[in-house]
Give the backbone structure.
Amino acid sequence: MEPQDESESRERREFIKKATALLVGGVAAAVPLAAGLPVLLDPLRRKAQRSDFIRVTALAALPSDGVPRKFAVIADSSDAWNKFPQVPIGAVYLRRTAETGIQAFNVVCPHAGCFVDYLPERGYYICPCHNSTFTVAGSIRDKKSPSARGLDALEVEIRNGTEVWVKFQNFRAGTPEKIPLA
Ligand code: FES
């Protein structure tokens, strides 16, 4: 009787050891999988970071005095599951300039991503979040500005002589360099 008891007890110990190993292994595998799921399943994260030219407005909509005007950027968008026709994907300031014709800036502050405002009575841009200020030409106005770079200029094309097209892009915040988001 005694040897059989001992054998059963050994089998039980082996079983518990294997079950514990399986459980620990399963938890270890599940943690990174669970952490990755939101990224995989969140359709908003998959929304395309646009980098193509988009028609923004008519040339006639820009005043000739060089004062910037804000425009929404509207385009088709999609994620892993859905298509969204003609939705706002960002906004830009456009202004006429003597040298190049049209200048375009992404409205997003390069410091930490708030939207900058243009103050026509003062003639410069200000960010309401931490008071970075930018000249009308987009450069840093105040040396103590928390933003490490000026406003992010975007490529502009005038097509058919009447339409303003902008290569819309977003850039990484908080860096002195202008790094496009993939
Ligand atoms: S986000 Fe604009 S100054 Fe901080």
